[in-house]
């Protein structure tokens, strides 16, 4: 079974956000594999252990993305592909999905796995757009995946309800929390990763030009949320505090009470 | 020239979702006077919902009613909507940023070769431009964006944009029923839907959220929180700490890698206030923290804090609310 995992490198979830000269500063920021994409990597490795085949991790991003791909190789992926090009960096989800589709269209695969969304830009578009561009079925936000022959049996988390589906491969799935528990790279894994194939490509290599992928949306401004004014710790006996809180809420301007 | 604005309506548990009314109002915020509003309603047994929608819509309602559309499936829903979109040639398509909206929107965007802005929380017009505000890093930052060209696809986050109000004296909406021809062969088939949420207040649409963390200590520990939520007609949420410990389902998780909620009142019980949790709830209107540790970081963010044992405080609150709301 040939599996591709599309992944993105994101800020660590612990990071605070600072804006410098109109952009989000990445000074001293720790980067990780987008947590949902990490579930996708784990699931791919698990399927390979059951069914054989190969796992290729694929990413678009700046050079630092190499680190995220190396981590995935150390976890057990077989090959990595990084498409890195300044001409893509001004793009949006439309652009990124076009580039991925141009590359994957020329590969043979049974499964494509990705994350439910990326925790930085939170668009949740790229993987689903990709399935459309490749004309393969997809199921988003899965929490269980079993493959048998050319059929996949999946559970999809739909805002708390669970939908069970049968899907004919090749297909694309996006991972939701609960799908698995990602493994840590082992020391031998880290050593082996250094010798695994790592391909670095440009936009030209996938046969696209900048004008074919130019963004459809444009950012006008970036800002931090207003800081909340510090609140009030209630005092006194607990039953009096509870009564006071209800009073305060009833006299506030919220309509819910 | 007049343009067409499309809203893809959403039905859950046989009810029209609140976010659809918010999407209708989004059109009002974005459009010009002579633009056309067309709502697309897909599902099964839609007569009552069509009737309800017609009180909000001065324009067209395209109804695609078929037994195969009774439950959401990306393939059947997309097959159903494709031809209607072709005939409407939309300028913008609005959907809710919900399980089905999040799934359908990128399919539509890819099909229309369109840009998409996801999870929009505010829409405003400046001169001739429509500006969309959306969160980055789960609300640790925000960006304002615009489209460079049309067509456009937008998903809006529930509970952030005001809902359209009914106008029974509206010019009657034009209801257009469209046939659905099931695709010759389906590549994905929904076998079953296990409902875990029906009858409960939707977490992302709730006006009040009562959340439990590791301090709740067990799945039974969630009971007092459920009672409080019930009295307030709110929903129960959780921290990842509580989910990881197996006290509740991951579907309840709020935070950077869970759901993002913006209720009017958020009550955090036994939650320390880790940065990943704050990312999912810090935009709530009023935040209340109940924690026995006065140093817990959640108190830095809370509008009101009670330092104490949640198993004492939460039932006291439930009683007080019962009295006040009686
Ligand atoms: C990649 C990544 C993603 C993450 N995503 C999320 C996310 O989306 N959402 C999220 O919530 N977390 C997330 N986390 C986890 C986060 O870092 C915290 O570990 C988690 O939020 C802690 O949960 P908690 O506050 O319930 O538990 P704790 O931090 O253990 O806090 C429990 C609190 O309960 C209080 N308490 C105990 N008993 C009582 C009592 N009887 N009465 C009153 N108070 C009591 C304690 O004083 C303490 O403050 C993520 C972490 C990582 C690494």
Automatic annotation (TrEMBL), chain A:
Q: Which InterPro entries match?
A: ETF_a/b_N, ETF_b, ETF_beta_N, Rossmann-like_a/b/a_fold
Which Gene3D superfamilies does the entry link to?
HUPs
Among Pfam families, the record links this protein to: ETF
Q: Does the keyword Transmembrane helix apply?
A: no
Residues annotated as domain Electron transfer flavoprotein alpha/beta-subunit N-terminal: 21-210
Identify the keywords attached in UniProt to this record, alphabetized: Electron transport, Transport
Membership in a protein family: Belongs to the ETF beta-subunit/FixA family.
Quaternary structure annotation from Swiss-Prot or TrEMBL: Heterodimer of an alpha and a beta subunit.
Write the protein's name: Electron transfer flavoprotein subunit beta
* Organism expressing this protein natively: Paenibacillus segetis
> Source taxonomy lineage?
Bacteria, Bacillati, Bacillota, Bacilli, Bacillales
UniProtKB/TrEMBL annotation, chain B:
Lineage, top-rank taxon, reads: Bacteria
SUPFAM superfamilies, alphabetized: Adenine nucleotide alpha hydrolases-like (SSF52402), DHS-like NAD/FAD-binding domain (SSF52467)
Q: What positions does the domain Electron transfer flavoprotein alpha/beta-subunit N-terminal occupy?
A: 4-193
> Record's Pfam families?
ETF, ETF_alpha
Keyword Electron transport: yes or no? yes
Q: Which InterPro entries match?
A: DHS-like_NAD/FAD-binding_dom, ETF_a/b_N, ETF_a/FixB, ETF_alpha_N, ETF_asu_C, ETF_asu_C_CS, Rossmann-like_a/b/a_fold
Cite the entry's keywords alphabetically. Electron transport, FAD, Flavoprotein, Transport
Keyword Isomerase assigned to the entry: answer is: no
The similarity annotation says: Belongs to the ETF alpha-subunit/FixB family.
The protein in question is named: Electron transfer flavoprotein subunit alpha
Tell me what organism the protein belongs to: Paenibacillus segetis
């Amino acid at each position: 079974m040939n599996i591709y995992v599309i992944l993105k490198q994101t800020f660590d979830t612990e990071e605070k956000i600072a804006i410098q000269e109109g952009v989000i500063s990445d000074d001293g920021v720790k980067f990780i594999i987008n947590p949902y994409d990490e579930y996708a990597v784990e699931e791919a490795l698990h399927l390979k252990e059951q069914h054989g085949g190969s796992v290729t991790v694929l990413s678009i991003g700046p050079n630092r993305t190499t680190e995220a791909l190396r981590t995935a190789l150390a976890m057990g992926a077989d090959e990595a592909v990084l498409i890195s090009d300044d001409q893509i960096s001004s793009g949006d989800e439309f652009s990124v999905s076009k580039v991925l589709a141009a590359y994957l269209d020329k590969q043979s695969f049974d499964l494509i796995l990705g994350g439910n969304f990326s925790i930085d830009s939170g668009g949740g578009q790229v993987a689903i757009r990709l399935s459309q561009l490749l004309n393969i079925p997809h199921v988003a936000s899965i929490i269980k995946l079993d493959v048998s022959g050319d059929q996949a049996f999946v559970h999809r988390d739909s805002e708390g309800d669970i939908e069970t589906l049968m899907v004919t491969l090749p297909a694309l799935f996006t991972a939701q929390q609960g799908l698995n528990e990602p493994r840590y790279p082992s020391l031998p894994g880290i050593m082996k990763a250094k010798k695994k194939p790592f391909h670095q490509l440009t936009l030209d290599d996938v046969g696209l030009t900048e004008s074919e992928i130019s963004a459809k949306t444009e950012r006008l401004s970036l800002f931090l949320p207003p800081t909340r004014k510090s609140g009030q710790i209630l005092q006194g006996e607990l039953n009096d505090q509870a009564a006071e809180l209800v009073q305060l809420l009833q006299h506030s301007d919220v309509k819910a009470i | 020239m007049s343009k067409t604005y499309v809203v893809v309506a959403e039905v859950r548990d046989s009810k029209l979702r609140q976010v659809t009314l918010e999407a209708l109002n989004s059109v009002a915020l974005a459009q010009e006077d002579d633009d056309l509003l067309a709502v697309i309603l897909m599902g099964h047994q839609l007569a009552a919902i069509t009737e309800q929608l017609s009180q909000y819509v001065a324009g067209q309602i395209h109804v695609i009613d078929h037994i195969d559309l009774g439950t959401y499936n990306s393939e059947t829903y997309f097959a159903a909507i494709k031809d209607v979109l072709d005939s409407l040639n939309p300028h913008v398509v609005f959907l809710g940023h919900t399980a089905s909206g999040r799934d359908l929107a990128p399919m539509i965007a890819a099909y229309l070769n369109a840009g998409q802005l996801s999870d929009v929380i505010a829409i405003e017009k400046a001169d001739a431009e429509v500006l969309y505000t959306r969160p980055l890093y789960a609300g640790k930052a925000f960006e304002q964006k615009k489209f460079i060209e049309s067509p456009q696809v937008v998903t809006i986050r529930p509970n952030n944009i005001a809902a359209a109000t009914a106008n029974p004296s509206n010019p009657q909406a034009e209801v257009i029923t469209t046939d659905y021809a099931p695709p010759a062969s389906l590549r994905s088939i929904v076998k079953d839907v296990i409902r875990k949420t029906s009858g409960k207040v939707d977490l992302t649409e709730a006006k009040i959220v009562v959340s439990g963390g590791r301090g709740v200590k067990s799945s039974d520990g969630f009971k007092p929180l459920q009672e409080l939520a019930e009295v307030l007609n709110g929903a129960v949420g959780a921290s990842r700490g509580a989910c990881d410990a197996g006290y509740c389902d991951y579907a309840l998780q709020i935070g950077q890698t869970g759901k993002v909620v913006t209720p009017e009142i958020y009550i955090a019980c036994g939650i320390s206030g880790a940065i990943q949790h704050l990312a999912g709830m810090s935009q709530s209107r009023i935040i209340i923290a109940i924690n026995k540790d006065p140093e817990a970081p959640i108190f830095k963010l809370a509008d009101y804090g009670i330092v104490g044992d949640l198993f004492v405080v939460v039932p006291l609150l439930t009683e007080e609310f019962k009295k006040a709301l009686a």
